[in-house]
Design goal:
With 212 residues, this protein is mainly beta. The protein has 5 helices and 14 strands. Bound molecules: flavin mononucleotide.
């Protein structure tokens, strides 16, 4: 099948998000200008460079009960403070991650709502999820307004300035996926847990242990 965007696809659900899978979940914590911690998951998220390390996420659509132009709290906080933290969502933290996605008012602290610890960061004022084994401290690089059929679509580009890694997910100095068990977003209501990996060596000259 083929369909042009903007014309009917003829399927029971929009297949787009199920075409780009799995998507890592950027579980983003911020601090409002008034000092209220905020936490929400974003699966339009990824790492886009490593030297220096940079990440992107996208804030989409309309928050229920708000004006179409109003930013989600995460975006508003990042624009106000220039900082955010990306926490890795894991199998053990899946329910807390889901709970933190609630469309709460800006005054609501989703750490408390999801029963999580707002742990101190080293280089940014925003808190990290204490229970998450990996957190990336980030500074805002740029926001880019994207076309939006409804509400706002804003791409946020961040520069990673510090990384927390719990010893509990390391084996011989390498991040052990069997210990980390990160979860990822698929299409529809589906998720994946990374539990199986395999090794492949790049053609001669292209191999780097830490490479892409
Ligand atoms: C797994 C998951 C992934 C999500 N990904 C996105 C996303 O990429 N972009 C987005 O705008 N909302 C996404 N959401 C919805 C937001 O988490 C939700 O709108 C949340 O209330 C935003 O909170 P905030 O206003 O505190 O930023 C996602 C929700 C879940 C559960």
């Amino acid at each position: 099948m083929f369909y042009e965007i903007g014309t009917p696809h003829g399927l029971p659900h929009d297949p787009f998000k199920a075409c780009v899978v799995p998507r890592p979940i950027g579980w983003i914590s911020t601090l409002s200008a008034d000092g209220v911690p905020n936490l929400a998951p974003y699966s339009f998220f990824n790492a886009v460079s490593s030297e220096p390390p940079m990440v992107v996420y996208s804030s989409n659509g309309i928050q229920p009960g708000r004006n179409a132009a109003a930013p989600k709290d995460t975006l508003a906080n990042i624009v106000a403070t220039g900082e955010f933290v990306v926490n890795v969502a894991t199998w053990d933290l899946r329910d807390a991650m889901n709970a933190s996605s609630v469309a709460a008012e800006a005054e609501v602290d989703e750490f408390a709502l999801a029963g999580l610890t707002a742990a101190a960061c080293r280089l940014v004022a925003a808190p990290r999820v204490g229970e998450s084994p990996i957190s990336l401290e980030c500074r805002l690089h740029q926001t880019v307004e994207l076309p939006a059929d409804s509400g706002r679509n804003v791409l946020v580009i961040g520069r990673v300035v510090g990384i927390h890694i719990s010893e509990s997910v390391l084996t011989e100095g390498r991040i052990d996926l069997g210990k980390l068990r990160p979860i990822a977003r698929l299409g529809y209501r589906d998720y994946a847990c990374v539990s199986e990996t395999f090794l492949m060596t790049r053609p001669a000259g292209g191999d780097k242990l830490a490479g892409n």
